[in-house]
Amino acid sequence: MNSSTSAAGTPAAPTVTDQAPADPTLTGDLPATQPIGYWSGLTHSVVTGHLRDAMARIDTTQPQYWVLNRVDAGPPAPGRGEVITQLTPIADGPHEIARVVDQLLHRGWLRADGEDRLHLTDAGEAARVRLRELVTEQRAVVHQGIGDEEYIAALKVLRRMIANVEAAAGNV
């Protein structure tokens, strides 16, 4: 008998693990009672801070990298509004991406055509390639000691948790 079947061989009700307070001092294996919100939030903060610090050393930002990548993803060239709409959900505020587009136009990394479609300039493409190399280097730091299978398993768990919460929100 395993934990998913009862003594009678019928599916057992899933067990509910008690939620304990976050304990960042724990070492070794973490108990299942540790809160995902704390650990995923801390991971986001540490990894994002590390990446943004590395980008700041070459006078760029993560949102600039997002915009350069989105503009590069064409054809067709995306419109300014399309880029803003697509990237605003991951930005630090509702106006950040519009500001970044303006910064990149001013910097000469983007140009807008007569239909307000955005295109990378040669300088913008060079910056995008340099940032891609930097991000790849920083990813290696973050992923040190973590195999692809382990990483994929972690992503699957996180995506399942998102789906669970979204499903529960739809049932409220």
Structural features, described:
There is one protein chain. A two-stranded antiparallel sheet has the order 1-2. By secondary structure, it is mainly alpha-helical. The mean pLDDT is 87.
Keywords, please?
172 residues; 6 helices; 2 strands
Strand content: under 5%
Kindly state the number of beta strands: 2
Q: What overall form do the CA principal axes indicate? A: elongated
User: H/E order of the elements?
Assistant: HHHHEEHH
Helix run count:
6
Question: How are the SSEs ordered, and which strands pair?
Answer:
Layout: H1 36-56, H2 62-72, H3 80-87, H4 96-107, E1 110-112, E2 118-120, H5 122-142, H6 148-170
Antiparallel strand pairs: 1-2
Helix pairs in contact: 1-5, 2-5
In a nutshell, what does this entry contain?
With 172 residues, this protein is mainly alpha-helical. 56% of the residues lie in helices and 3% in strands. The model has no long low-confidence stretch (mean pLDDT 87).
